[in-house]
Amino acid sequence: MSTPDQPAAFKPPANDPWKGFRGVCSGTLILESIVVFLAIPAIAKLGEGVGAGAVVYLVVLGVVMILACGVQSRPWAMGLNLGLQVALIAGWFVHPAVGAMGLLFAAVWVYMLYLRKDIQARIERGLLPGQRD
Q1: pTM for the complete prediction?
Q2: pLDDT-based confidence at residue 102 (cuts at 50, 70, 90)
């Protein structure tokens, strides 16, 4: 028991708060891969069309995003997610619309970093519902 002068001891949450966060990360990657795949016919209709190299680039990127959903419990998963955003922004050379799409999703992942920091701070302060008495 803690007294008013002494802070409460750290109590881990009853439920894993990171499980939901990992689910949001996986869901975001799935949605992002769908958008990448749908970009192929869209940019094929724009301007000069799309070359074979661009199609391979986008298909590989979309498949890697789907595969990345399975490693969200790893400590390096957020780094992989951010690296995928850099690769998508680099798609600007495939078509400017792909790069713009990358910038949009990069903003989503910056917000995810904020959420991750907020969850960690709440765990440390004992503010999650599973940590309260």
Answers
A1: 0.81
A2: very high
- Is residue 110 a contact partner of residue 26, using CB atoms and an 8 Å limit? no
* Cα 108 from Cα 89, distance rounded (Å): 13
> Which pLDDT does position 27 carry in this prediction?
96
CA distances from 14 to 18, 19, 47, 62, 72 (A): 12, 12, 55, 35, 21
Query: Would you kindly state where each structural domain of the chain is located, as residue ranges?
Result: 18-121
Residue pLDDT, tens place only, 64-74: 999 999 999 99
